[in-house]
Design a protein that fits this description.
globular, 4-stranded antiparallel β-sheet, 8 strands, about 100 residues, mainly beta, Jelly Rolls
Length: about 100
């Protein structure tokens, strides 16, 4: 399986990292763009929130930070969700 990569611009509504099923073997790296003014939050459900409820908040990434979602947590990009604290925040992703 070849690696895939891409980017996504997100705002205050949770979005799937990709609307297309893109499986990965080991996981997917997600990096918040260095130019982001706000924070992005990574979760495994469309109910992920951006620092508003401890039970649903996602994993927080500030500008330039990255996170690996392991394959044990999700099978493909449609199972990973991103939401932002402000409009027009960008994330980059790369499957491994």
């Amino acid at each position: 399986m070849a690696s895939s990569h891409g980017s996504l611009t997100v705002s205050g509504s949770a979005l799937q990292l990709s609307g297309t099923t893109i499986p990965f073997l080991r996981g997917v790296y997600i990096k918040a763009a260095a130019a982001n003014a706000g924070k992005v939050y990574i979760g495994l459900s469309s109910a992920v929130t951006a620092n508003s409820a401890s039970s649903t908040d996602g994993y927080e990434l500030s500008a330039g930070q990255e996170f690996l979602v392991p394959a044990a947590a999700a099978d493909d990009l449609t199972e990973v969700y991103v939401i932002a604290s402000q409009a027009s925040q960008k994330v980059f992703w790369f499957t491994i």
